[in-house]
Amino acid sequence: MSWEPDRLDDQGRLADGDPSGMLRAVAASAAQVRTSHRAAREAGLGSLAKGGRPRSIVVAGMGGSGIAGDILNAVCGHGVPLPIVTVRSYRLPGWVGGTDLVIAVSCSGKTEETLAVAMEAVRRGCRLLVLGAPDSPLHAVARQAGAAFVPVVTRGQPRTAVWALSVPLVVAAAELGLIQVDDEVFEATAECLEDVAHRCRPTSESFINPGKSLAMELAETVPMIWGSSSPAAVAAYRWACQLNENGKYPAIWGEIPEANHNQVVAFDGPLARRDIFADEAGRSLRLFVLRDVDEHPQVIRRREASVRLAEDRGVPVTQIVAEGLHPLERLATLIELGDYASTYLAIGYGVDPTPVSAITELKARISH
Questions:
Q1: 74 Cβ neighbours under 8 A, 6+ residues apart
Q2: Domain closes at, from 114, 145, 177
Q3: For the CA atoms of the chain, what is the radius of gyration?
Q4: What is the CATH number of the domain that holds 339?
Q5: Of 46, 93, 137, 226, which has the fewest beta carbons less than 10 angstroms from its beta carbon?
Q6: Is 339 found in the same domain as 215?
Q7: Is the pLDDT of residue 279 over 70?
Q8: What is the pLDDT of residues 280-289, one digit of tens each?
Q9: How many angstroms separate the CA atoms of 158 and 165, rounded?
Q10: Which residues, 6+ apart, have CB-to-CB distance to 160 below 8 Å?
């Protein structure tokens, strides 16, 4: 598979390269925010606060569902008066009990790890909130336990439902008094997503299209993606996951300052410099820094020093600044841009961004 950037501005080849409509799914993010916000309101999540504030919130989910817990934690921020933990496995931590709220998130409602955790939460007497497909096995667990349930209706891959799965969690946190989020914040977030979608639309040419331009910078590199705040780090993780799933492409993600204690050493490694005299061009490292307006003063110094260090060693750097006022808005703009870039990257390589055949094959092997 070779990189052909001309595919990105050829409308016929763009359409042929995206037969399942991943670009359309990404463009629907704003509508997803509005729909999921309404669904969460209709689910009556105020009942979660009847027993008082929980000791902790444990979000159980895998892949595109699990990131909902990370988004919740990032939006609530460092001032939240309880821990928010995401569990990506078959078991709850041993300390989780009746005073904790477990939120089970599965787009399909069939994810075996999430089902196992939800049933364990019921056995332990935890408060439970469930998000998933109606009439799914996970919905059945919610019915049997008398737990709150928010239906998730989507036709695409679970990773395209990030806002359908995340927005209800933010609504739940607001009902518990953990964060101040009103209807205007959700509408502003939807408008931010619409703005990114307009700028990244397929008919917009590469030289003015930030999604296509970013895909061209990602191509033929080993991307190292760093976030400079908790929301930006979640976006960095999402970028890496989307590059993996949409682009079938490797990526490394990290957060400043932690990345300064390990990943930064890669700037001195064999992928840091491209040998222009080599017989065959090889992929070289490129640093992508996702920036936020809410950065610790020392993180600002570390970010600036990291960029200089990379450039001094011949590692190209791309910096992306989050847009918007509320953390949810800023996180949404970074995620949407990465979703577009990973999709355009796949199409530029002649890869269908939608299928995840390796995951399907792995599940089949496990089932045997």
A1: 230, 231, 233, 234, 327, 331
A2: 177
A3: 21
A4: 3.40.50.10490
A5: 93
A6: yes
A7: no
A8: 556 799 999 9
A9: 9
A10: 22, 25, 26, 28, 64, 154
Q: Are residues 10 and 73 in the same domain?
A: no
Please indicate, yes or no, if residue 129 is contained in any of the structural domains.
Answer: yes
Residue 205 lies in a domain: yes
Give the full edge-to-edge strand order of the sheet including 57-60: 84-87, 57-60, 101-106, 127-132, 148-151
Amino acid at 145: A
The strand pair at 57-60 and 84-87 is best described as parallel
Q: In this structure, are 11 and 66 located in the same domain?
A: no
147-158, pLDDT tens digit by residue? 999 999 887 888
CA 301 to chain centre: 26
Cβ-proximal residues to 219 (8 Å cutoff; 6+ apart), any chain: 3, 5, 345, 348, 349
Range of the domain at 144: 54-177
Decide: residue 194, CB within 10 A, 0-12 exposed, 13-18 middle, 19+ buried: middle
Please tell me whether the overall predicted TM-score, pTM, comes out greater than 0.85 for this model: yes
Q: How many CB atoms lie within 10 A of CB 147?
A: 22
Q: Is residue 112 part of a domain?
A: yes
Q: Where are the alpha helices (DSSP H) in 200-229?
A: 210-218
Alpha carbon distance, N-terminus to C-terminus of the chain: 32
